[in-house]
Structure formats: structure tokens, C-alpha cells
């Protein structure tokens, strides 16, 4: 922006321009209320979206009320903040309208940059508001008149302990039609460039002024200053400062370039004071302040009407755009959590299948080995105790030596511990990987996003701790609970007396052996059946291994479904906000093109406008004919050096074909396109890689144009 070559605007022309600005204020106010109605509708519909989300959770068979309340609470936080944002925006619009008597210029810059000195110059003050030394001069917002405009002086940024000052300054800047951004000559500070970027993203037109601060209070300094104006002019060449400052800016706004109007504000102030009347002309000349005045009046004359209208729309669009992007991010995060749980669930299910197969085989082998050892002891036991009168007691003692009950129980407990460890590992990994809790930052805006205390939500640890895996069903009375079967009762006294002793012993040996082996076989069969039941999906019973696995899978399904519902709901809210952002951007573009002489028929061709404030603007037009306009002039009237694209679009193509067309236009690879949420939404998945800022902006505008959600996966 080079203003020195332009002719000075006549006072009469400036007056006409300011009158036009007052008329434009009415249009801007009406437009703002129209879009406020749209925002109000979007917020009101969020209640339906929340209810639909809860209903969807029911479709996923999620009946855990605490989980439902948690998800509902998260969405309610979103709704509450957007409600508050709407209230704040409406109040800001009304406040702006009340201040609408004059075109507003706001002074912005760090402490001691010279804002108060500039105020004294414009009001021909006596210097009473100018600071001394390092003090914070302006502690509140002050407004005064200059040439039929209102000039607002705000607290300086980056002052020690001045966080409150910065908030006040930013709020005041949001009402500005034009901002004068002041820096001082010397080494530029990155924080100053950061603030300028923030103001650009708020869609504020800015004139940058560099205050050449050189002390001239001392008479000797004053004399040297005035006697060698050529040296001062040489010193006021801030080429290096300008280059460094623009490097800072272009990190975030690659197309932006600001030019500084250099002035010595103190010299201009002294030129207005009676004690320096004899030096007034010299001070005025050296100060170069005339160029600053010309630039301000020229900017108001050329673009005041557009800036006036846009200031209303920016008050709405700036927070709207930020919240839209936050919602898309939240939706993508929630979907990412859904995928994390889904992957964990698949991995756990695969693990369980192998675990069940391996552990069932191991447990059955353990049982068979244990009973075979007992079975192998039968011949020796029979020979040694065939005529014993304490046969039952002796058999109990024999069984006790093999410790069958305890060995089977230990094997089952080992399987239990393996499963429990896997569940703990799965849920612990989820606890560390999941980031799901919607919270508010200290400044009242939506912040990070995490669910807290996974274990408490699902209570899985308590469930597992109560499980005995059905061990009691197998070993309550011991797998050999048949010990007291009363062996001596199988022979009658008659049989014992009537046959020879050898025959009796032989017969008794056979019967006792068969009876013991039969009992062992039945106990082994019963134990094996119980193990089969532990892993049987058909024979569901609390305490089974399969039931614990199902419970863990159920909790994973609950959370997976809730994350999907949450993602869909946040996406729906974001798409509603995106549509409003597109409509406001379209209105801003139409206002500018109309001021440049574009016909109503030309404006009718514009079907959509996608915008990343400060960086990228895409105008989508219908028809094959080129849509021509002077882009440099457009940028000047927009107040931002945004990269501008015009795209001729075939609206008869399918949504998928249109998305693919835009991906080709912006030189992206082919994406994966899916409809989700019962076909109501479209999600476009892009392969994950390192995107530069320009590519991210292009993905953002595709998202706006096509009303889709682009997720980098």
C-alpha cells in the first residue's frame, strides 16, 4: 500500500465519503441481524442434534446412563458456549451500532509505541495524556473525534502485567472499521507481528505506521535534528525493519505484505505547541506526518463504505469461523477415538479367539494328566488295600497325594490371570491413548478435549474382581467329591463266606478296580465339561471366561458407539456453522464486487465463497465464461492480501465428482469419500502426510464449498 503518490483527498470529498459510511452503517447493521437469525437457528437446532445423538446411542444399544450423561454433557458444553457466543456477538453488534455515528479508527500497538502521542496530535492536545518513561499510559479505552471520524485509543499490548489491557484492546479492535497499527523503529518484535496476524484473521483492514522515536527535548538535540533533516530522512529508512517484520507475518499469512508509513510523532506534536512556534514548519516537515494523514483519509475515501459494512459481518464471522474449525477438529478427534476403540476391540477379539482355543486345550490336557496320574495309582492301591477295613479313608489319603483339586484350580486361575492381565492392558492402553474431555479454557473458549477416568466410567475393574470363572462349580467339593462312595457296601457277607478266599479276592480286585476307574472317568468327564462351559458361547453363565470377554467387548462397544455418535453430532454442528461462514463470506465478496462495478447478473453467477480469513479466498461461479475482475483492487478493498481463486463449477455433477474435481484443481491425490450418519453427512478421508499451510487452507476451502468434513487419516 503506497499512499505517498496519491493526491490529497479534499475535505469536501472526505465529508461525502463519511456520509456514505453512515448510510452504509444501516445496511451493515441490517445484514448483521439477518445472519444473526441464521446463527440463532443453527444454535437452536443444536438441541435436536444433541437429542438425536442420544437416540443414536440407543441404536447402538448403549444403555449405560452415566456414559449417556457424559456424552450429553459434552455436547451441552458446546451448546452453552455457542449460546454465550451468540449473546456476546449480538451485544457487540448493538454496541457497534450505538457507536455508529462516526467511522471508527482504532489505534493498536504495544505499550510506548506512540498511540497516546498520536491522539494528542489529532486532538491538538497539550500532552497531558502522553506517558513518561516506561509507564503504561493508556489504561482504558478512550475515544475522540477527528475530521468527522472517531478515533479510539486502547491500552498497549505486551506490557508487563497487561493481560487485561490486551483483552480490552482486542475487544475494542473488534468494533474498528480501520486499525492504525503502530510500531517503533528498531528491532521488530515477533509478538507485534503475531498481534497483527491476529487482527488480520479478525478481518480487520490495517494501516501500519512506524513511529521514529528520537529524543528532541534537549535544545541541542533539537537544533541538530532540525539542522540536518537529510540525516533524519536517511535514518528513517526502515527497509530492514520492514523486511524482518514481513518475514514474521508471512509465517502465518504467506501472501501478506505490509508497508510502513514512517513518521516522527513527537516532532509533529511539538510543531503544534506554542513554545515551538518558530520551528513549527521545520518540525512539521521533518515529522512526515502529512503522509500519515493522507493515507488515512485516502483509505477512508476509497474503502470506507466497504470497511463499514464488513466490520459488522466480521464481528459475527470471526468467532463463527474459529468455532466452526474447533467443531470440525472435535468431530475428527471423536472419530479418531472411535477408530482407536474399534482397533482395540478387533485386536482384543482376535486375542480372545486364540486365547480361548489355547487355554481350553491346556486346561483339558491338565485335567487329563491329573486324572491319568490318579488312574495309574489304582492297581497299586487295590493290591495294597484289598482286604483293608479302612478302604475309604485309605483312598482319600491316596487321592490327597496327587493334589488333583489344587492343581486344576491353579491351572484355571492361571488362565483367569492371563485374561485379566489382557483386559487391564487393553483398558490401560486406551486410558493413555484416549483424549476425550470437553473443557473450557480460562478465557471461556472451548479448549482441550478429554474423557476422564476411563476405569470409573466403565467400572470394568470391579466386574473382573468379582469373577471366579466358575471354579466353584468344578472344585466346590473337589473334582473327586465322590471319594466317600462306600466301597465296602458292594460285597455281601454271603458272597464273602461262600467262595474260596482266592476267588473272593480276585473278584473283589476286579470289581474294586472297575469301580475306582469308573468313578475317576466320571469325575474327569465332569471336570472337562465344566471347562468346555467356561469357553462356551452357547452356555452363557456369569463367571465363565466367555462372559467376562463379552463384558469387556460390551464396554468397548459402548464407548465406540458413543464416540461415533459424538463425532456425527459435532460434525453436524460444524457443517451448520460452515454454511453460515460461507454465506457471510459471499456477502462480503458481493459488496466489494458491486463497489467495483460488477453487474447484478455477474453477482448472480456466484454460488459459493469459501474463505480462510487473511490467507485464502475462493469464489465459485456458475457457467464456463471467465469471471474477471481486478484482483489487486479487490484485495485493497478487502483490506487483506488474500490469495484469490475463481473456479468455474459444474453444479450438475454428482457430489463425489465435484469433490474429485476440486481435489484435482488444488493438486491433491484421490481421496476416499464416504457417506456417514445414515447418509446425512459426507466425510472425505485424505491419506496422512505433512501438509504445508497452503495445502491445509485448500483442504479447508474444499470442505466449505462441498459442505463435507475432510479428515486426514
Summarize this structure briefly.
With 713 residues, the chain is an alpha/beta fold. The chain is built from 24 helices and 14 strands.
Describe the overall structure:
- With 713 residues, this protein is α/β, with parallel strands linked by helices.
- It contains 24 helices and 14 strands.
- It has helices at residues 11-59, 65-98, 115-123, 163-174, 190-201, 219-227, 229-235, 239-250, 265-271, 280-287, 289-376, 378-385, 391-402, 404-433, 454-458, 460-465, 471-475, 493-498, 501-534, 545-595, 600-604, 631-638, 655-665, 693-706; strands at 103-109, 142-146, 149-153, 178-184, 206-211, 260-263, 437-440, 446-450, 606-612, 616-622, 643-649, 672-676, 681-686, 709-712.
- The strands form four sheets. A six-stranded mixed sheet has the order 2-3-1-4-5-6, sandwiched between helices.
- The radius of gyration is 41 Å and the shape is elongated.
* Largest sheet composition: 6 strands, mixed
**Proportion of strand residues:** 5-15%
How are the strands of the largest sheet arranged?
2-3-1-4-5-6
Which stretches are low in confidence, meaning pLDDT under 50 for 5 or more residues running?
1-5, 132-136, 436-444, 446-499
Helix content: 55-70%
Radius of gyration: 41 Å
Mean pLDDT: 82
Count of DSSP helices?
24
Shape: elongated
Cα end-to-end separation:
42 Å
- Specify the structural class: alpha/beta
Oligomer: single chain
Number of strands: 14
Amino acid at each position: 500500500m503506497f499512499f505517498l503518490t496519491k493526491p490529497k483527498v479534499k475535505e469536501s470529498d472526505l465529508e461525502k465519503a463519511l456520509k456514505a459510511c453512515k448510510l452504509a452503517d444501516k445496511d451493515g447493521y441490517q445484514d448483521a441481524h439477518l445472519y444473526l437469525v441464521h446463527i440463532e437457528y443453527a444454535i437452536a437446532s443444536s438441541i435436536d442434534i444433541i437429542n438425536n445423538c442420544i437416540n443414536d446411542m440407543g441404536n447402538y444399544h448403549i444403555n449405560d446412563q452415566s456414559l449417556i450423561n457424559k456424552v450429553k454433557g459434552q455436547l451441552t458444553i458446546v451448546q452453552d458456549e455457542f449460546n454465550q457466543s451468540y449473546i456476546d456477538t449480538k451485544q457487540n453488534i448493538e454496541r457497534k451500532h450505538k457507536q455508529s455515528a462516526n467511522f471508527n479508527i482504532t489505534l493498536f500497538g504495544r505499550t510506548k509505541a506512540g498511540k497516546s502521542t498520536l491522539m494528542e496530535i489529532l486532538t491538538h492536545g497539550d500532552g497531558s495524556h502522553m506517558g513518561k518513561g516506561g509507564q503504561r499510559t493508556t489504561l482504558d479505552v478512550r475515544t475522540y473525534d477527528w475530521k468527522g471520524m472517531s478515533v479510539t485509543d486502547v491500552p498497549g499490548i505486551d506490557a508487563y502485567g497487561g493481560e487485561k489491557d490486551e483483552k480490552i484492546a482486542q475487544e475494542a479492535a473488534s468494533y474498528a472499521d480501520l486499525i492504525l497499527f503502530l510500531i517503533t523503529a528498531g528491532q521488530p518484535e515477533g509478538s507485534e507481528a503475531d498481534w497483527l496476524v491476529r487482527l488480520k484473521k479478525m478481518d480487520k483492514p490495517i494501516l501500519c505506521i512506524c513511529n521514529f522515536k528520537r529524543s528532541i527535548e534537549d535544545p541541542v538535540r533539537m537544533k541538530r535534528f532540525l539542522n540536518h533533516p537529510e540525516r533524519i530522512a536517511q535514518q528513517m529508512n526502515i527497509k530492514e525493519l520492514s523486511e524482518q517484520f514481513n518475514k514474521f507475518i508471512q509465517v502465518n499469512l504467506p501472501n501478506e505484505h505490509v508497508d510502513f508509513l514512517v513518521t516522527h510523532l513527537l516532532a509533529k506534536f511539538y510543531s503544534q505547541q506554542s513554545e515551538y512556534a518558530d520551528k513549527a514548519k521545520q518540525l512539521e516537515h521533518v515529522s512526515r506526518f502529512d503522509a500519515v494523514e493522507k493515507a488515512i483519509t485516502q483509505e477512508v475515501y476509497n474503502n470506507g463504505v466497504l470497511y463499514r459494512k464488513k466490520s459488522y459481518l466480521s464481528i459475527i464471522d470471526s468467532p463463527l469461523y474459529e468455532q466452526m474449525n474447533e467443531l470440525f477438529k472435535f468431530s475428527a478427534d471423536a472419530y479418531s477415538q472411535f477408530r482407536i476403540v474399534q482397533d482395540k476391540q478387533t485386536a482384543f477379539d482376535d486375542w480372545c479367539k486364540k486365547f480361548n482355543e489355547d487355554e481350553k486345550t491346556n486346561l483339558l490336557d491338565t485335567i487329563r494328566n491329573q486324572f491319568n496320574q490318579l488312574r495309574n495309582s489304582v492297581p497299586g492301591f487295590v493290591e495294597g488295600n484289598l482286604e483293608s477295613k479302612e478302604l475309604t479313608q485309605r483312598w482319600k489319603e491316596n487321592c490327597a497325594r496327587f493334589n488333583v483339586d489344587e492343581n486344576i484350580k491353579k491351572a484355571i486361575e492361571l488362565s483367569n490371570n492371563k485374561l485379566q492381565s489382557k483386559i487391564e492392558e487393553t483398558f490401560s492402553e486406551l486410558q493413555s491413548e484416549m483424549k476425550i474431555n470437553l473443557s473450557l479454557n480460562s478465557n471461556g473458549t472451548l479448549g482441550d478435549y478429554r474423557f476422564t477416568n476411563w476405569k470409573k466410567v466403565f467400572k470394568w475393574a470391579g466386574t473382573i474382581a468379582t469373577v471366579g470363572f466358575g471354579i466353584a462349580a468344578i472344585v466346590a467339593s473337589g473334582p473327586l467329591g465322590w471319594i466317600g462312595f462306600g466301597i465296602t457296601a458292594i460285597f455281601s457277607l454271603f458272597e464273602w463266606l461262600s467262595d474260596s478266599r482266592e476267588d473272593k479276592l480276585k473278584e473283589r480286585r476286579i470289581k474294586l478296580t472297575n469301580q475306582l476307574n469308573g468313578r475317576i472317568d466320571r469325575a474327569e468327564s465332569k471336570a472337562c465339561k465344566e471347562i468346555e462351559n467356561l469357553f462356551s458361547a452357547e452356555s452363557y453363565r456369569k463367571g465363565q471366561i466367555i462372559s467376562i470377554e463379552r463384558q469387556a467387548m460390551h464396554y468397548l462397544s459402548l464407548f465406540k458407539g458413543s464416540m461415533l455418535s459424538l463425532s456425527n453430532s459435532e460434525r453436524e454442528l460444524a457443517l451448520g456453522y460452515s454454511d453460515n461462514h460461507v454465506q457471510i463470506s459471499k456477502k462480503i465478496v458481493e459488496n466489494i464486487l458491486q463497489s467495483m462495478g460488477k453487474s447484478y447478473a455477474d453477482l448472480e453467477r456466484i454460488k459459493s465463497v469459501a474463505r480462510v480469513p487473511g490467507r485464502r479466498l475462493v469464489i465459485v461461479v456458475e457457467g464456463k465464461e471467465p469471471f474477471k475482475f481486478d484482483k489487486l483492487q479487490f484485495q485493497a478493498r478487502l483490506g487483506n492480501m488474500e490469495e484469490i481463486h475463481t473456479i468455474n463449477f459444474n453444479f450438475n455433477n454428482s457430489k463425489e465428482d465435484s469433490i474429485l474435481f476440486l481435489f484435482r484443481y488444488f493438486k491433491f491425490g484421490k481421496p476416499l469419500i464416504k457417506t456417514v450418519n445414515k447418509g446425512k453427512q459426507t466425510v472425505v478421508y485424505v491419506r496422512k502426510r505433512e501438509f504445508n499451510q497452503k495445502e491445509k487452507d485448500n483442504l479447508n476451502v474444499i470442505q466449505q464449498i462441498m459442505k463435507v468434513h475432510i479428515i486426514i487419516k
